[in-house]
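Re-run with default settings, no changes from the original entry. Doing this only to confirm the output is reproducible before filing.
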Amino acid sequence: MPRRRKNVVADLQVGPRGTGIPACAPTSIQPPEATASIGSPNYEHSTSDSSARHSPLATRRCASTSHKSPVTNHHPQTSPNSKVFLIGAGPGDPELLTLRALRILQSADVVLHDSLIGPEILNLIPPSAQRIDVGKRAGFRLLTQQDINSLLLSNAAKHKIVVRLKGGDPLLFGRAAEEIQALREAKIDFEVIPGISAAFGAAAAAKVSLTDRRLSSHVLFTTFSRAPEAKFLPGIGLTADTTVVVYMPGPDYAEVSRWLQDAAVSRDTPVLVISKASHPDQSQHATTVAGLTQIAPLPAPALLLVGRVAASAEARATVTDAASARNFFYDTIEGGLPNARIS
């Protein structure tokens, strides 16, 4: 009787839907737990050896067969007809997904998603698809952006439909530019499916218009940075009719208050803090730039609406009178320089 050939392919088979983990090793499609927390009220963490073993980037060794992490610097061979979709998940309500986003999501082979994507949307992913959490937890980034780029490329080499699922819109503060560049350099076909940005979801949830021809004629989208070298948009003057939307304000609103005042925003400028917009447990708090120092941070994701439109309905009725409208942004800062920038 001829000797039966050993099934080499089976021995080298990786884990579920290309996790990069050998089939003979314990596997998990759940995200690795962060080993540190930086003050977010939303998550609790514990250091776990098992979570490290189950990381999609973990190196596995089974008997004499070893398998390296899927995060590499080279461009893998793309699977025929494969395509990567950068999808905006919107502010959180699954009914705010676009029809195309929902259709692609339900056809996905693998989904790389941000940590703040809620279960209501993640449950729309078919059970047959692999889910990989590539986001941040309490400010602790599990993977670098280069790691995420490499995972996109390696999964495009193995799967037909690869989804990168981002909160809000992928093209606004979503690091999409870096992922687009990596896909272009690797000559991988991709498509961007827009989503409702958090600013619009929050404004809708609060029933506040970001623009009002009586109060605000332009809008500035920005993020708060704690970096010492970061400056609040110097060079282009903010005016009284500017609405400022601050994404990702972080857990210390006192820092944000100082940051805004350093940009010559008046202490009395109305602020509306909106948390978990469009979620069942959404909340909001009305205050001023100075009042930010007195309130506890709301659960992430949260953002700030700063400007006249953020005032209460009663206050807005007062400031709509052009004769009594107040300039909440100082005309100049010391030295006569413009107080801030707008884009």
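The chain has nine helices and 14 strands. The longest helix spans residues 145-156.
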